[in-house]
Amino acid sequence: MILEAKELNYFYQDGDSRRYVLKDTNVGFEKGKFYTILGQSGSGKTTLLSLLSALDSPHSGNVLFNEQDIKKIGYEKYRRNNVGIIFQSYNLIPAFTAVENVLVPMAITENEIPEDQKTVAYNLLDYIGIVKSKADRPVNKLSGGEQQRVAIARALATNVELILADEPTGNLDEEMEQEIIDIFKKLAHEHDKCVVVVTHSNEIAQQSDQTFMLQKGKLSAYE
Amino acid sequence: MNFIKRGFLSVSRKKTKSLILLAVIFILGNVISGSISIQQATDNVETSIKERLGAAATVELDYEKIDQMSEEEHMNLEISNLDLELIKQIGELSYVKYYDYSFSTWLGSDTANSYLGEGVEERYEYDGPSYDFQLKGVNYAPVLDFEEGIGNLLEGRAFEDQEVENGSSVAIISKKLAEINDLQIGDNITFTNSVYSYDYTTGEEKLETSRDVILEVIGLFNPTSVSVEEGDRDQGMFDYMNMEYQNTVYVPNEVVISEVTYQFEEYLKYDEEYAAIVEEEGISMTDYYIPIFVLNSPEDSRSFAEEVQPLLPEIYKVSSSGDQYDSIAAPVESMSKLAGYVLLIAVVATVLIIGLVVLLFLRDRKHELGIYLSLGERRARVVGQILLEVMVVALIGITLSLFTGNLLAQGISETLLNAENTQNQYHDMIYYSELDAYQTNVTMDDVMASYEVKLDFSYILIFYIVGLLTILVSTIIPLIYIVRLNPKKIMM
């Protein structure tokens, strides 16, 4: 397993009572597979993803990356070197161009990156479907689908094995949604990445190798 | 793309925001720069004027306090002389470079002529007592007046410690006096210590006895030239003081004490009434010393006075040559105070305003900071990037305001100084002080002349430190508030 969650608990304190979003959640993910986590709005999908990506910390339980507790690795270091995160709202730096956005994590990570980072960034964007003329445009001049492609390229820029995506197609039309899902499948099956996508869409879930269902704080395999 | 490159890129890409920040920093920078300029200029005035006034101090009667006393207090007033041990104790303080305590008397001469002034040849002859020469006692062998540049030794030598200790009959006279009396080093000069009795009914003075005081000339001095412009209103005073100094004869203190004792004791033989009072009250004529302490630096005056004052007998005070500064430089001082307040307010206002502006900018950038943190960027580098962005703009704004603020300060201080100067036309009563010989007279014009708002290294350094530190503080506070949150809280 590249990523495991063990006995994860996360709750909101409401006076004396606790409202559990995740309760004793256990789950594991392997390399080379495309996973989806399915659930209704407010079911805790995004919370689970933020715990798996170390954007937040659980109240109890552990997240293991390659069998090592990410707390021990260090949340910041884990985000820097081990995981690529993709958000529904892209979260790109608006003042920068597409290629500059891809270059940002390359300077942050401690992973080995080829010396000519700019060429790597252009190649990555090209692979994802952003041609050079668009790569040099400020990201706010690109369409939603193009911006999400830039976000995917940015997640791949640090050469990580784990990609976590939170509703990556939530703001895209159907055609664009399929193109993005195809990229994820390619990354998992051709490049041996572990891709975990949080979604509320059954169509996307049907295309994944394995789906988990999150309901009332409990995660279960979905057939 | 590391955080430094990101910072520069953000500044150049967000031109409008950078320009707004630049304008705010420039305006506030002018206020800070102006206040520092004025403070620096007033500090320079204080240093240069105090330097000119010298670092001498003395302990003397507080005539101002005596004048303010009621009649009853005057009647009960008992003035004790300064104890020699106390003078020595003060002289040993660390602030004191060297010191002397002098005892003086005036003698006449039957054989030596006194200096009457430039171009004056005719002598006025009369039968009464003549006291043309001041014998100034010295306890500090190298002679304090020469060390302090009041006079300089042209020929011969100063005293030796043993001569001072033994009260040897040696003297240092002025070159002028030597020329008038055709004296060389090694020659003797003879003074007459005459004792006159006074008839209270007729008002006549009668020579009762006298003795010769023969002194070997061991050195010749010249008064340090003081340039006085022709037609100066102080010309007459200057001529008189010059004449008096040319007729001063430096001798060991013991020589003066011996002559004063002789004169006093002989006089008592002819005035029985006074002799009775002296016996009853134990009056002595040989314990009135005038101490002069030369301090290491004019800056030490205040600390010296604070330490010495508690040691002194009642109604004595410490006077230092720098005291004059306080009375003449009031307009500069009040401007310095004003500038100090403005600086303080400006710094606080800058912290608040820049803090708010940065907070406003950070509200827009909050999401961006969250993105960097979600990518695993170190918090310190995120803070560093924003600091860099603000500091780059601040550096430009501060550099621009360095010059404009200085110009502003020149204009403001000129107006303020002129206004204050016309309001301060009154002068307090001036009391004679033993220090007068050791200090240069400084006027308000000198103060105005030494007031100069300029761009010197220390000003530039202080301004950059104050300016950049202020902006640093006002940026860090809102920044820390944001980056201490976890990325999820910032972004979601």
Task: Explain the overall architecture.
The complex is a heterodimer of chains A (223) and B (492). By secondary structure, chain A is α/β, with parallel strands linked by helices. Helices cover 37% and strands 29% of the residues of chain A. In chain A, the strands form 2 sheets. A 6-stranded mixed β-sheet of chain A has the order 6-7-8-3-9-10, sandwiched between helices. Chain A has a 4-stranded antiparallel β-sheet with strand order 2-1-4-5. Chain A is globular, with a radius of gyration of 17 Å. With 492 residues, chain B is α+β, with helices and mostly antiparallel strands. Chain B has 3 domains: 212 residues, no CATH class; 68 residues, no CATH class; 184 residues, no CATH class. The longest helix of chain B is centred in the C-terminal third of the chain and has 45 residues. Chains A and B meet through helix 3 and helix 4 of A and helix 1, helix 14 and helix 18 of B. Chain B: This is ABC transporter permease.
Provide the domain count of chain B: 3
Q: What share of residues of chain B is helical?
A: 40-55%
Strand arrangement, largest sheet of chain A?
6-7-8-3-9-10
Radius of gyration of chain A: 17 Å
CATH topology of chain A: Rossmann fold
Percent in strands of chain A: 25-35%
Give me the oligomer status.
Answer: heterodimer
Quick one: CATH class of chain A?
A: Alpha Beta
Low-pLDDT stretches of chain A are: none
Low-confidence stretches of chain B: 424-431
* Overall body shape of chain B: elongated
Greatest contact pair?
A-B, 29 and 27 residues
CATH superfamily of chain A: P-loop containing nucleotide triphosphate hydrolases
Distance between the termini of chain A: 21 Å
Along the chain, the helix and strand elements of chain B come as HHEHHHEEEHEHEHEEHEHHEHEHHHHHH
**pLDDT average of chain B, as an integer?**
81
Pfam families (chain A): ABC_tran (PF00005)
Family (chain A): Belongs to the ABC transporter superfamily.
InterPro entries (chain A): AAA+_ATPase (IPR003593), ABC_transporter-like_ATP-bd (IPR003439), ABC_transporter-like_CS (IPR017871), MacB-like_ATP-bd (IPR017911), P-loop_NTPase (IPR027417)
Keywords (chain A): ATP-binding, Nucleotide-binding, Transport
